[in-house]
Amino acid sequence: MKTCSECKKDYPVLWKAKTRDRGDLCKDCCKGINVLSLFNGMSTGHTALDNVGIKVNKYYSSELKPYAIELTQYHYPETIQLGDVNNWSE
Ligand SMILES: [Zn+2]
Q1: How far from each other are the two terminal CA atoms of the chain, in whole angstroms?
Q2: Which residues neighbour ligand 1 (ion) by CB within 5 Å?
Q3: pLDDT for 23 beyond 90
Q4: DSSP code of 8?
Q5: CA 7, CA 57: separation in Å to the nearest integer?
Q6: How far apart are the C-alpha atoms of 37 and 22, rounded to whole Å?
Q7: Inter-residue contact 42 to 68 (CB < 8 Å)
Q8: Residue 25 near residue 6 (C-beta atoms within 8 A)
Q9: What is the DSSP letter of 29?
């Protein structure tokens, strides 16, 4: 267990977010991360982040397969689909 430098609660070592200015934070005090998942598949990356308790703010996905996109949107409807990376221009 570690102690959160913000709220002073103990939290499991599995979850750790060390910030430059605020020290070690529990997942309730951490602001979360933004993710760009290229070739996202069915969002196993998002599932892994959830499993270790990392808060996700924005999750951008690039995927072509319709069934993978459908599965992603079923489990994580807030996912932002960016389409084919080959079509990105700017
Ligand atoms: Zn905390």
Answers
A1: 45
A2: 4, 6-7, 26, 29
A3: no
A4: -
A5: 21
A6: 27
A7: yes
A8: yes
A9: T
| Domain extents in the chain | 1-30, 32-85
What's the chain's average pLDDT?
Answer: 88
Mean pLDDT of 63-80: 97
Q: How far is the CA of 26 from the centre of ligand 1 (A)?
A: 4
Q: How far apart are CA 86 and CA 44, in angstroms?
A: 22
| Model pLDDT, residue 64 | 96
Residue 15's pLDDT band (cuts 50, 70, 90): low
Q: Which tokens sit at 84? A: 């084919």
Give how far Cα 73 sits from Cα of 11, 36, 37, 42, 61, Å: 31, 15, 14, 9, 10
C-alpha of residue 8 to centroid of ligand 1, in Å: 6
CA dihedral 42, 47, 49, 53 (to 10 degrees): 160
Tokens of 79: 């996912």
pTM tops 0.85: no
